[in-house]
């Protein structure tokens, strides 16, 4: 069953969404029994706590059912699950439904195999029983606790709810060699790992004090305490380099031998349990990418420097302007720089963004990341007044627009201003550390359609949301672009913005920065109004358990061919309430209080509250696999199933 795993991991959202809807439906059925004096807050809190529940340890109903079966004379089995109705009444399962908890696992299988037929996730570890049973080994790590009751199936110290690959892990290796084969579309490679020494995870949020020091690379003269920190980064070594512009949004830094990728913490119940990072392979990359990955620590020091500023004759300070030009057009706060005296009559001027004032193209003053001869200027100093001469023998001057240039004319006179002590982070040393892979996914993106639906009348948006729940989320033959016409044909007219993007990240970045602000700005001011966000993704996904099986395996070289996996269409929908004055989304508590303020009837208020919780949580469903519509059907009630 390993070949199904990537699809199953994606499909897990179906079960989560279905359980939310089922619980909300139950609440609605009994809403008239639980609304005393309009005290909705306690009801909501009780509902949430009941839905989450505490972690559970293993137990089984098998012995009880076996004993009851030995004494009962009842033969009625309404749902054909091989458990007679009278026994189901005792153990709490539904005698007319052979899958009482709607988790796609029959009640009799759960009873005889030790899982809970009344809970889709027996141990509340965040991974549904269905997926913990759909593997070749029901006890992946061989620790004597079956997956369904094991909080860490693969024994990699990352609990299942936080584990990117909960059914496998690697041994500790210095580096991992990977070949990624795609169809040439934008691709995300996500790695989750732990350092050889797990205590080093805590370095991520620790600082150390450096004693008073006036010499060397690390200087501390202001007696600050948070002077040194260790920053983990993934080092990718490869001959196939993306352009820096394509990967800058991901924090990736392209080098001559590959690129560095920023690392993020993985938290679980307040503990930092692993690191995770995303490598972005843009569409411009080849269909086959080969690289080595490994962890290295960059030890950073917040070193103190004596800050200066150059005050020009126009009363402005020298600063870095547009197009990398250097101009006398700044203020003291933003125009600080470091005066680096080389001791040979030459000086370099370093801005606090790391760039140097430099001679570029032979006759222009600009900025450069390199400290070379072009970034060295001969200087004369008379008290606080200084003049500068470039490496080409020409004087530094200022034109009528305040731009620094080099001319044969007399040099401009600058006043050197003492700006006191300023600190800047600098790399002190780097060192590598071996890692254990706890998870890995490769996701090739084909296209993302994203839409926003809105109106000045909130009830109209609610009606659109309910209709699209069926006409878009649960009808894979209808596309996102068809939704406005479908809504209109049903008498619902709402504003909408729909666009397509090459991959999901760029879609949601553009939505957050452009589309959503435009939509909220278009709505009447001083209102609290809903906006629906829906998207339609097409992706291929490969997960680590497709490459290795078992736990702590010694594989260190992987062929990750995502082209052999199906294209999955995933649809998602979420609705938030927005304050059109601040343009901010309301938190769930504030949104629920807003619903209460509408002064609806008692039952209507409670029903809207439950629906609001569902809409705020959002829903994600698989619509098709390789263009074949996916339908989620209830387990049939027949003896052959």
Mass-distribution shape:
globular
Question: Percent helix among the residues?
Answer: 10-25%
Number of strands: 30
Percent strand: 25-35%
- Radius of gyration, in Å, reads 31 Å
Distance between the termini: 19 Å
Largest sheet, in brief, is:
11 strands, antiparallel
**What's the quaternary structure here?**
single chain
The SS-based structural class is alpha+beta
Low-confidence stretches: 1-38, 47-51
Mean model confidence by pLDDT: 88
Helical element count?
A: 12
Question: What tags apply to this protein structure?
Answer:
641 residues, Trefoil (Acidic Fibroblast Growth Factor, subunit A), six-stranded antiparallel β-barrel, 30 strands, 34% strand, disordered N terminus
Describe the structure.
- This protein has 641 residues and is an alpha+beta fold.
- Among the domains are: 2-9 and 35-151, no CATH class; 314-412, Trefoil (Acidic Fibroblast Growth Factor, subunit A) (Trefoil).
- Strands 2, 4, 8, 9, 22, 23, 24, 27, 28, 29 and 30 form an eleven-stranded antiparallel sheet that branches. A six-stranded antiparallel barrel has the order 10-13-14-17-18-21.
- Helix 1 runs antiparallel to helix 12.
- The radius of gyration is 31 Å and the shape is globular.
- The relative contact order is 0.13.
- The model is unreliable at 1-38 and 47-51 (pLDDT under 50).
